[in-house]
Design brief:
Number of domains: 1
Distance between the termini: 34 Å
Shape: elongated
Order of helices and strands: HHHHH
Number of helices: 5
Number of strands: 0
């Protein structure tokens, strides 16, 4: 194979790969924007606010995690995780005696006339449901951030491939048209 042909093929493949990476970077950037907007829009619609600084977040199981958000509206994935894990979960644990919804529900079914336990089961169910929804918002926000970083990598890769493809085309122009690739086999002498 002629060296110029090989250089042309490799440089063209580099251009194609650069184009693919540009498209991937654009799609990943769009995914980041879409996910971030959706998470923010859905969280804002819930109108959840962190308690103001003071007694509500004085508990040592809450304060280190929520002090930075005191009084703010919950609008981001990291805020959703902090609220779910360090506000809702702490209160559910306190009110349920560290029993899970499943344990409380089984106890309630075993004592169908215990209205106080039935009310606790209902409250814990609602709390765990909200907690799960907030943690899903956090998960989607994290996926959006990963898409953003992946888009940066794709754009950098596209730039590198474009640069290498241009170097390949420049090398092709300087190569002697008659030059062959240096993949010649040399005969191996047989042992006599």
């Amino acid at each position: 194979m002629r060296r110029r042909t090989f250089d042309g093929l490799m440089a063209t493949a580099g251009l194609v790969l650069a184009a693919v990476l540009l498209v991937a970077g654009g799609l990943l950037s769009f995914a980041h924007t879409f996910v971030s907007d959706q998470v923010r829009e859905q969280l804002v619609a819930q109108k959840i606010f962190f308690p103001p600084a003071g007694e509500a977040i004085a508990d040592p199981a809450i304060k280190p995690y929520l002090s930075q958000y005191a009084g703010q509206q919950l609008t981001t994935g990291p805020q959703a995780k902090a609220y779910a894990d360090h506000f809702i979960a702490v209160h559910i644990k306190e009110m349920s005696g560290d029993r899970s919804y499943s344990e409380l529900s089984a106890a309630s079914r075993a004592a169908p006339n215990d209205t106080e336990l039935a009310g606790l089961v209902n409250t814990v169910f609602k709390g765990e449901t909200l907690r799960g929804l907030l943690l899903n918002a956090y998960a989607f926000d994290t996926m959006g951030r990963i898409a953003l970083y992946a888009s940066f990598a794709a754009f950098i890769g596209a730039g590198a491939m474009l640069f290498l493809a241009l170097l390949g085309f420049a090398h092709r122009r300087r190569t002697d048209p008659a030059a062959e690739l240096g993949f010649h086999r040399t005969p191996v002498a047989a042992n006599a």
